[in-house]
Amino acid sequence: DSLTYTVTMLTVTGYQVFLPLILLISSATGHQIRLQMPRISPNGTEQCVCTSVLLDPLKEYNIVGFEPIADMDTVNHMSVVAGETFEFRKSGDVIKMLDSPAMNTIDDKVTEVFDAEARTCSTAVGSAADHWQELGPQTLFIWGRNAGPLVLPDGVAFKAGRYTRLTRIVLQVHYRKNVVKEGDQSGVIIHYTEKHQNKTAGIKSLHAGGLVLPSSKTYLEAGCPLTGRQELHPLYFLVHTHSLGTWASLWAVTGKDRARWEVIGRDDPQRPQEWRMVENSASLRQGDVLMGRCTMESRRSSVTLTGPTREEEMCAVYMLYWVEGRDRLASLGYCMGGHPRI
């Protein structure tokens, strides 16, 4: 059973929509969740907004693909994460919506329960300690700069719902500054099957902190050694910076005394920030080090700090991988370090 796309892109009422010209989904893989903003009205401030869906506890979700519904003129980036509890559902400010909540219902025939509103939220941030950190939610999908869909290979899936602690999926949209829009429905279509897949997908994310000096070229780096006895098999990589980033790469540091550096993937972060096939798919083991690097070139007259806003910079490098069976260290997916070099 597989999910196969040939896609094209159209602009429809302000969204970049990827239309499947060939969408072959067998009866076993023909399920989807449309997780979109409930017709909200961004107010022009740069902010992160979240909405979520509570999964059916009796259903096994083997997630095999994502279709973005968004446009970079409105959205800086989107992420999809899964977990149990999320603070924004209690403390976030409710975003203004069009019409009544009843009109924002996605589908009243499904067994999932969708939020009737969207709230402000913040990204999870770890400490710059050069080790994998357990932040709770697990990243499933990242999107930026009008990137296309993601389809996993046969037999590989993200696992959620029954038999996992991932009972809720959250869509986080980082809206651009000065965007004033009514009835926004940016989001993603999540494709899944209830048929068990033997290989589990996971994401390792590396984030480099630091600063970028004015009128300079700066290199930001973050690296973490892998733990656990499972072998990781790299599939795709994705790089993310803001406007100062000119190049970003992901490396595997392996061998005796960690003397061998092999590139896993590299890309221009100003291109569509989508999942691309790795250059090197050699399996990774305990003790190997993942290293993320970003090149920043600044013509600004002041120091630029790393952070989530567009006035700040960000160096984030992601690796999507698969393991045999259950991913026993899936919760340790976030690493933050800071080694700026001028």
Brief descriptors of the model:
single chain, 342 residues, mainly beta, 13-stranded mixed β-sheet, six-stranded antiparallel β-sheet, 1 helix, 25 strands, disordered N terminus
Q: Please report which band the strand proportion falls in: under 5%, 5-15%, 15-25%, 25-35%, 35-45% or over 45%.
A: over 45%
Secondary-structure-based class equals mainly beta
**Cα-atom Rg, whole angstroms?**
20 Å
The biggest sheet amounts to: 13 strands, mixed
**What helical percentage do the residues reach?**
under 10%
Characterization of the model:
The protein is an all-beta fold and 342 residues long. Helices cover 1% and strands 49% of the residues. It has 1 helix and 25 strands. The chain has one helix spanning 88-91; strands at residues 3-12, 15-25, 31-36, 47-54, 60-70, 75-83, 113-114, 119-120, 132-133, 138-144, 150-151, 156-161, 168-175, 187-193, 199-208, 211-212, 216-225, 233-240, 245-254, 260-267, 276-277, 289-298, 304-305, 315-324, 334-337. The strands form 4 sheets. Strands 1, 2, 3, 5, 9, 11, 12, 14, 15, 18, 21, 24 and 25 form a 13-stranded mixed beta sheet that branches. A hairpin with a 5-residue loop joins strand 19 and strand 20 (260-267).
